[in-house]
Amino acid sequence: MIRTLKNWYVELISILIFGFFLFLITSGVPLLAVLSYGVTKVMKNASPELHNFSTVFLSLFIEGLPLILVGVLVSSLVHVYVKEEMVWRLIPRNPLLSIPLVTCFGLVLPICECGIVPVARRLVQKGLPSYVAFTFLLAAPIVNPVTIISTYLAFGQTWRVVFLRVGLGALIAAVMGFLFFLIFRGKPVLKVDQKGQEVDCCDHHHDHGHAHQHDHECTSHHGESGLMHALRHSVFEFIDMGKYFVLGALIAAGFQTIVGTAVIKSVAQHEHLAILLMMALAFGLSVCSSADAFLAASFRSVMGTAPLLSFLVFGPMVDVKNLLMMLGGFRKSVVLFFIVGPTVLTMLSCYLFL
Amino acid sequence: VKKVKAFFRIAICFGLAVLLIQLLLSGEITLFINPQLKWLVAASVIILIVLGMVELWHFRGKEMHRISVWGYLMLFLPLFIYVVIPPKTLDASMAAKKGVQYTVAKTSKVGGASTSSSSQNSLAVPDDPYKKYIPILKQQREITLDDKNFANYFTTIYSYPDEFLGKKVNVQGFVYRDENLGRNQFVVGRFAVTCCTADASVVGFLIKPNHHIAIPKLNAWVEATGTLGKQKVDGQDTPVIYLQSYHMIPAKKDPYIYFFQ
Fold it and tell me: For chain B, N or C: smaller number of CB within 10 Å?
């Protein structure tokens, strides 16, 4: 009884505080500015770089935030309402048909690379051929509506870069799928820990721990409606993905203000070097595929399409946070294959493109 | 700990919503993104509030992902940074990092060293949409570049400098200088934003005074009037403005210019 009271107490306070904030803001009080009033005095003679850093960081964050939120919402809705078995029924058995087909699956199942690893893992668990799941893993972050729209917006509402990005991404994913079919057919790909359960960094951790039945519970457990469940799930996924995004924005802003794009510009004349540099940047920044186009757009005044494309295509397939998640779910040989493969293919295709 | 985390989640959703609402209402949002994309920010405010409400409703609910405390702290960082280091308009110090473009598109002039990149520039696309501005500009007795038309007019003049030789030009912007510029020259430039400030680039006119005058200070906002000419900079024909006069103006409230308006 007391516990319930206490809980409600907190909730009530939260609502009141938020209402109060809204009231203050709408009545014209610059709330956060008031908060920062004292600090501002101290920071007044801080170096201009610090302020520039803050501006660039916040602009990256604010720009990417809506796209990440939409991505998280959609991914959660799919997570709750779409059963993997349903997906499986749609896929033909012949790899020559299924691999090209599955590259376009991201269009109906838009999950960016932050959420794709657990989905692909579950697909393999459900008995989907692993080469299909992996083609999906590589293609979905690029061939999906959110990424397409953000790329379109970032590159000044023109379609050229969008087509190149999507085409090249789908092509590399398909090639990787066939290679995977040839090399890993029939071999186990999932990592197994001591308890015989797969480790999963993005999965639900139910107290009653039968993860494989989890999807059947989703819609009905504890009397929660599916929509409510999806919304709650997106809060968690938002924070889970948001931390990588904030980290990425920090690194990117630091890079822009401390090193400066002027340095990349000085390298940009060597296009071959620029391609490698941009791929390394994509790997290190780990920006979500729904927002990385805006980052790439900031480089377009200094370099040609090929290095930009290497950034846009390579980033969603291989990056630091993706790598960590894959290492958590798949065998090392598989992960290695999925790092070396796209790296070589992206480099090859971008050099050919020059 | 569980309850603290639940509180964190609510605070993140509502806190970010409050931050965005404030930016929208105060108009400070133009410091960060192209105002054309305001609706995106408004959408995220709505989603954040809905998510915050849902989380509030399920305050005692189970955790669905295990997220470490640093994950939560990371998401407080934007709020923290906004409060501790108030952002301000990008200025000449940032321009030096970004590299200022005052030579024609094929050459990019860079803070320390001048480099010529063979890359094609986004401003010079094959079927040039800026051609349509040529007759409009030619009609005017004096070309005035204001906030609205700066991006388009600037690109037009830089794409077809020969069309406008001898024209009178009036331009407003901040003063930028670096050691590569001659002693008596400066650039009047603006930050051009496509989507967000992170993709801002600096565009500006090279200004050459006719006779010796006091050069305005770095970062000062000026309105300069002069005639368009041409000059070789790094072996490239570059439009320059032969200065007739300039005077100080107050810094713009919305300092950036936007492509695709």
Answer: N
